[in-house]
Amino acid sequence: MSCLSSNPTRGPRKRLLWLRSIIPIAIFSVAAPLCRTRVIALPVAPNLSKAPWVVAQDDSDSDESEVPPADVEKYIAVYKAMQRDRSLTAETAAAQNGMTLEAFRQLEARVQRDEAALQRARDELQAAAKKATPAGAP
C-alpha cells in the first residue's frame, strides 16, 4: 500500500493526528519541570507573625523637629509674599525676606516635618488668601 492511501486511519493523516496529540504533551513535559524549578527557586517569605518584633522610638531629634515660631513666621512671610505677587518665584520671595533659596527649602522641609508648625502655616496662609479675595469673586 502507498502512503497516500485513501484510508484516513493510515498514512500521513494518522501521523499528523498523532503529532498533534503528542506535541502538547512533549512541550508540557519539557516546560513543566522548568516552571516548577523557577517557582521553587524563588525566595520564600519568612513567617513574620512569629517573629519577635521590638519597636523602638528614637526621641533624640524631637527637639530638633520642632520649628521655632520665628522660623515659622519667616516661612509664612515668604509664602504670603508669593500670594500677594503671583509673579514672584520662591527664590525672589526668600531673598526679599533675607534668605537664600537653599535656606528657605531647608526651612520648608523642617516645617513639613513639624505637624503643628505646618498646620499653623496653613491656617495663616488660608486666612490671608481669604482676606485678599474679595467677597463674591471666584
Q: What do you see in this structure?
A:
The protein is mainly α. The protein folds into 2 domains: 43 residues; 70 residues. Helices cover 64% and strands 0% of the residues. It is built from 6 helices and no strands. The radius of gyration is 37 Å and the shape is rod-shaped. The N and C termini lie far apart (94 Å).
SSE blueprint and pairings:
Elements: H1 12-41, H2 62-65, H3 69-84, H4 90-96, H5 101-113, H6 115-132
Helix pairs in contact: 3-4, 3-5, 3-6
Which descriptors would you attach to this protein?
single chain, 138 residues, mainly alpha, 2 domains, 6 helices, 64% helix, 0% strand
Helix content: 55-70%
- For the secondary structure, the number of strands is 0
How is the main sheet built?
Answer: none
Provide the low-confidence segments as ranges: 37-42
Tally of domains = 2
Structural class: mainly alpha
Number of helices: 6
Distance between the termini: 94 Å
Written as H for each helix and E for each strand, in order along the chain, the element string is HHHHHH
| Percentage of residues in strands | under 5%
In short:
The protein is mostly helical and 138 residues long.
